[in-house]
Specification:
This protein is of the alpha/beta class. It has eleven helices and five strands. The protein has a five-stranded mixed β-sheet with strand order 2-1-3-4-5, sandwiched between helices. Helix 4 links the parallel strand 4 (93-96) and strand 5 (123-125).
Length: 318
Amino acid sequence: MNATSRAVAVGLAAALVQAVMLIAFAWPAANIKPRELPVAVSGPAASMVAGKLAERDRDAFDITTVADEAAARTAIEQRDAYGAVVTDGGPPRVLVASAASPAVAQQLTAIAQQMSGAPAAAVQDVVPADPDDPRGTGFGAMVLPLVMAGIAGGVLLSLLVPTAAARSVGVLAFGIAGGLLSMVVVQTWMQLVPGSYLTLAAIAGLVSFAVAGAVTGLATLIGRAGIGLGALLMLLVGNPFSAATSAPELLPQPWGAVGQLLPPGAAATLIRSVAFFDGHGAAAPLIVLLCWAAAAVLMLGAGALLPRRSPAAEPVPA
């Protein structure tokens, strides 16, 4: 293949990547709507409310009837429901948790207005978002830099550090330093999330380790193609389906669930759970991140056992 043919091939490949990126980022955003969204109902009119919600869209809500308003609040605080409609004594009132998802809170508020017929419907935010980030835009924007930095760290370690053992040390150093520094920015300067600095720094460090370790581990096992594979997986699949700005139940399925099995989605859910919900709902995303971190360690360990590639073994352009 001569230089001109190679240039055309690269240009066409870049155009294909551009099209895939448009699909990956724009399609989920254009198709946000409730899909089996967990909602609680309580009170004498609970069955009527459940019926009205089902009439709107039979597949939109996963409705659970609870005993009373206290039980509805508990369900929200423990992340078993995104919101609730309570009819205990008086007209229906809606409980939301903007910390779980501002987008869901807005949708439930709109439903409350339609049910009450009044623009100022009775809505209470049981678990509010951080007052410095009430709409959650800063929180949603926080996930992409963590992922991009992890990819960049993995790429640099793969290209500049020759041995798997040294790369492992580099990934560990990046995870520790990245977690500590990122939470200094997020909590002290931007003030996006409340909670224990050390706990959140440990989570950010685990995310950094998982993303950078996955990229570096794949590169160690299969060469430079692993860099592209890891980066595309985290950026084109993990980030747009992370639900950091919405909720997994608002995304097209099964992609909302798939996103929670990748580090970006698990990171968003875990940080929300720890920062706003006292750790409720943290187990599943923590296990996902630990599995990715373990996979990175295994790939780097396996790479250390493989014979080192000499520079001559790398393909040389014709």
